[in-house]
Design goal:
The chain is built from no helices and nine strands. By secondary structure, it is mostly beta strands. β1 and β2 form a beta hairpin.
Amino acid sequence: MMENTYRQTTHNIEVEVVPIFVPDQTQFNDKHLYTYNVSITNHSSSTCQLLRRHWIIMDGNGNKEEVQGDGVIGEQPSLAPSENFQYSSFCPLSTPTGNMRGAFTFVDAENNEFEVKVPLFFLRQDAILQ
C-alpha cells in the first residue's frame, strides 16, 4: 500500500490522515471513491472531547462542498492525555482527484471549546490499497 500521510498538531492535539483510493468502487454512480483513515492523539495534559466536525471538500474542478455535524462516525470521543482515537470514513468525488481539509471542535476539562485543524490532504489515484 502506498501511504500518503498528512499530520498537523493544534493545541497539543495531533490529527493524522491517510487517504486511500478505492479503484474497485470507483465510477459507481459516476463517482471516484476514496476512504480516509483518521488518527487523533491527545498530547495535552487534560482530557478533551471531540464535539463537532467541519470538512471542506474540493473536487478537481474546484467545486467546494462543506460538511458539518456532531462528532465523527456517530461518536463524540473523549481522549485522556496520551490517548488515541482512530476511525475511517469515505468521500465520493465527481472527479478523479480532489482534496479535503477541515477542523474538529473540542472541549477541555474546564469546558473551554477550541478548534483543532485537520491538515489539507490530497485525494489522488496513486494512493491505492493493494
